[in-house]
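Fold Annotation — chain and its backbone
Next Lines — sequence and tokenised fold

***
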Amino acid sequence: MASSSGNEDALTIPRAAINKMIKETLPNLVANDARELVVNYCTEFIHLVSSEANEICNKSEKKTISPEHVIQAPESLGSGSYISQVKEVLQECKTVALKRRKTSSCLENLGTPEEELLRQQQELFAKARQQQAALHQQEWLQETYERIWEDLHAFISVDALSFSMYPKRRFFRFSFYVQFFMHTQ
């Protein structure tokens, strides 16, 4: 089924995958010609089964080939004895896929329970809030100190005329600033 138009590699199974399966299943050495024959046979078999599954899919007026279509393909090709093995492989694939989804979670890969991670996250949030509040308070104090120094400077440098106009108000303001400085330091 593979065309000879130069895209033959696009229509074959990766040789490394087949070589790995051969090494895992066969204890003896396998000649390169035999390996090539197995690769070609596997490729043709996959094309045959997938084409038949595609026809079954089209007959059932579906757009996507489902596992049920692939399971029906060997039976319509005259290899119905393999259906139980195909179903077992399908179940194994589903199990592996489910495990892979579960283990691909970052939380499970860390080895730390989710409750512990949530507790650590809450601690980090609380620490960040405290740091933010301390920074905000420090900025507020800095602004307040600057305003007080400006007012004190204005109070000290005020001329005698303006001081004599509002002596009590300025004195109380000055004493408030002095008390504020004493309590904040």
Q: What stands out?
A: The CA atoms of residues 53 and 70 lie 5 Å apart. The two ends are 88 Å apart (CA to CA). Helices lie at 15-25, 32-59, 67-76, 83-103, 106-110, 114-156, 160-165, 167-184.
